[in-house]
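Propose amino acids for all 180 sites.
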């Protein structure tokens, strides 16, 4: 697939719950090159968090020796994310995707993971095979900044540069006055 995407990253980590935050932040850092809004970035981080948590809790369960894989690709203004495990798989994907369904009621799971992923991303697909694991495909288009937003950002940067120059000049002046 080399050359089909503007950029891509691959990440593998142990199926330990404390790696969920790491995965979420790594994907957010990768996506940040598209200059997403805070809401877009939050949506992506939430969906990734849900998918990774599903791999850890449902795919591997008590087995923290499993590996969770993430592949993220950027093409133009769209990010595609694939999160997978080689855990036990899902017996009935359609049922698992129903809101409030959980295979782990004893762990007080809400059964909203797939629903959350679907609502926060533009596209979401799940493939699973018993005994072989699960793959979740997520896709989100990042809204390009308008010319007005770019001008605003440029003005903010200009103002901040000017403030720094003024502070530097005032500091030099003050230092010169105190050295007299």
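Proposal:
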């Amino acid at each position: 697939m080399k050359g089909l995407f503007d950029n891509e990253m691959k990440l593998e980590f142990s199926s330990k719950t404390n790696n969920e935050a790491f995965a979420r932040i790594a994907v957010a850092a990768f996506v940040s090159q598209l200059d997403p809004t805070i809401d877009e970035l939050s949506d992506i981080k939430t969906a990734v968090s849900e998918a990774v948590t599903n791999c850890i809790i449902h795919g591997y369960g008590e087995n923290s020796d499993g590996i969770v894989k993430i592949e993220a690709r950027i093409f133009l203004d769209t990010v595609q994310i694939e999160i997978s495990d080689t855990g036990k798989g899902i017996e009935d994907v359609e049922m698992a995707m129903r809101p409030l369904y959980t295979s782990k009621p004893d762990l007080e799971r809400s059964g909203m993971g797939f629903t959350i992923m679907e609502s926060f991303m533009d596209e979401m697909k799940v493939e699973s095979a018993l005994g072989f694991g699960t793959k979740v495909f997520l896709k989100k288009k990042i809204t390009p900044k308008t010319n007005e937003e770019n001008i605003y950002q440029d003005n903010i940067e200009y103002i901040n540069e000017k403030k720094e120059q003024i502070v530097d000049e005032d500091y030099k002046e003050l230092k010169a006055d105190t050295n007299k």
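The longest strand covers residues 67-75. The mean pLDDT is 84.
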